[in-house]
Design goal:
This protein is of the alpha/beta class and 311 residues long. The chain has one domain: UDP-N-acetylmuramoyl-L-alanine:D-glutamate ligase. The protein is built from 10 helices and 13 strands. It has a 9-stranded mixed sheet, sandwiched between helices. Helix 1 crosses helix 8 and helix 3 packs parallel to helix 4. The longest helix has 15 residues. The chain is globular, with a radius of gyration of 19 Å. The termini are close together. The structure holds adenosine-5'-diphosphate. The site of adenosine-5'-diphosphate (ADP) has 20 residues, from helix 8 and helix 9.
Length: 311
């Protein structure tokens, strides 16, 4: 198993349920509150670690009690904390999530806080770890200048860069050039390429836009439909596993963490997408983000049950 890095966000999810979502100026008495570890980077690192990867999680926390939420999860799971940074004046990132009890509709405000203040000095400090890695996985939830700097360093050192283009924001062609793999969902693929991904020809056309920008491989996640993969002159539409979904939050994060793990394990992109589909399918059967990431034992049992060897 090769070493890998997840460079990205940590947010504390602060989730409350209420009979209805408040309108501006209104106060609504809620019925339930839960706090948990989140942020796309952190979720993906947890998914990869639980799936068996040797993963360095790089993020930045505040000097506050919210940071302890990250540390508690990392300690419990035995994840290395060598690549955590602290901002003395900016608070740990948070996601305020309000859920309507009746309709399950939600309203979310994200304040990335400390994890959007990653500096060139921080990147310099993790460079020795990065150089040991086969892959680095990025998302778009931290300050983009840090993503650009780490991608540049990785490319210069022969470390393959994977960009999960979530949450959507505009990114430069310079950033995409030389990226080994992009993993948008359908919505992000459309926003980034201008092509609505509905079927094989449209997925192929969207992938072509990324190839023109100098991306080597393209993987578009299609929710319950599975995933489109294209690279090295090959392409495939790999179906998702058929499961009963109860909460699709974090499906993309589980998928990306699983993908990273399988790649680090030496699988090719198409095999890795199969493995990642299993993590996506397992995560949608449980509520929550990090707690719903499956263990390697659960993944192996599931893939064996589905008649697919995971090794
Ligand atoms: P995101 O959460 O980023 O929008 P998707 O909805 O495309 O991402 O889901 C990511 C992956 O999770 C899919 O490619 C698939 O492997 C898995 N997945 C998502 N929804 C389901 C589902 N209902 N059943 C089975 N697998 C699912």
């Amino acid at each position: 198993m090769q070493e890998v890095m997840v460079f990205g966000s940590f947010l504390v999810d602060l989730m409350g349920r209420a009979p209805h979502l408040p309108v501006p100026g209104e106060t609504v008495k809620g019925s339930f509150f839960k706090q948990g570890a989140g942020g796309k980077g952190f979720n993906q690192a947890v998914a990869a670690h639980k799936a068996g990867a040797k993963v360095w999680m790089v993020t930045k926390l505040g000097r506050d009690s919210l940071a302890d939420v990250a540390l508690a999860v990392m300690d419990e799971l035995g994840m290395p904390k060598d690549c955590l940074f602290y901002n003395d004046t900016v608070s740990t990132g948070i996601a305020l999530i309000l859920v309507d009890e009746g309709t399950a509709q939600n309203e979310i405000v994200i304040v990335p806080g400390a994890c959007s203040t990653i500096t060139p000095a921080d990147i310099g400090a993790i460079a020795p770890h990065l150089r040991q890695c086969a892959y680095v996985l990025l998302q778009l939830e931290i300050n983009q200048d840090a993503n650009e700097a780490v991608a540049k360093l990785a490319k210069e050192n022969g470390v393959r860069v994977i960009v999960n283009t979530a949450p959507y924001q505009q990114i430069s062609d310079e950033f995409l050039r030389g990226v080994w793999l992009v993993t948008p969902n359908e919505v992000e693929a459309q926003a980034l390429t201008g092509i609505a991904v509905r079927d094989l020809p449209s997925a192929r056309a969207a992938a072509a836009v990324f190839f023109e920008k100098g991306v080597e491989n393209v993987l578009i996640t299609l929710g319950e439909k599975g995933v489109f993969v294209s690279g090295g002159g090959k392409e495939a539409l790999i179906p998702a596993f058929r499961v009963e979904a109860v909460d699709t939050t974090g499906a993309g994060d589980a998928f990306n963490g699983g993908l990273l793990t399988a790649l680090a394990d030496g699988k090719d992109l198409f095999e890795a997408a199969h493995f990642a589909n299993a993590l996506g399918a397992l995560s949608v059967q449980k509520i929550g983000a990090t707690p719903s990431m499956p263990t390697r034992a659960e993944i192996d049992a599931f893939t064996a049950q589905q008649g697919i060897l995971s090794k």
